[in-house]
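Shape matters. As here.
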Amino acid sequence: MKIDPSKIIPTEYRVLVKLDPIEEKTRGGIIVPDDTKERQQMAQIAGTLVAVGGNAFADWNEPIPSVGDRVLIAKYAGDRPPIDQRETYAIANDKDVVAIIG
């Protein structure tokens, strides 16, 4: 089952992050095998904050991330919903956002 990312609304303290794409080829032109791409996806931590739950970042001090910010999330944080093979998203807790990329 594929899910439309625009229909995902995180609840409570959760956030939806669109992770940066995994490269299909290396700089030298070597095609990356699927199992390696899957491991890279689990290690991928940079992305764009797409949506936030109603209580996300409520108990945070400055700076507070907002939708559209580039963020880093904890390495194995959250769940990866089945949205699209070309795009990877993560639903994680707000505490899993470890930095805002300036």
